[in-house]
Design goal:
The protein is mainly alpha-helical. It has three helices and no strands. It comes from Pseudooceanicola albus.
Length: 74
């Protein structure tokens, strides 16, 4: 089931406004649990977690910045 353009816009807003801050708090909590690892390990974890959130949600953000393809051309 494909999402409509309007649904993708709404879900992308929900993900960015609510989901991403929650995910950031979770990532910082994981880093605190590791008790300050070496700098390169910390960088690798942050980069990995930074990419990890976007992979399953890329279909939500696909084409959101473009004009509505279902709208009538005036």
């Amino acid at each position: 089931m494909a999402l409509s353009y309007r649904a993708r816009r709404r879900w992308s807003l929900v993900v960015l406004v609510i989901g991403l801050p929650v995910y950031i708090v979770a990532c910082v909590s994981v880093m605190n649990w590791l008790e300050r690892p070496p700098l390169l390990v910390e960088l690798a974890v942050y980069v990995g977690l930074g990419v990890l959130w976007a992979l399953p949600l890329r279909f939500v953000f696909l084409g959101v910045g473009k004009s509505d393809p279902e709208a009538e051309a005036d």
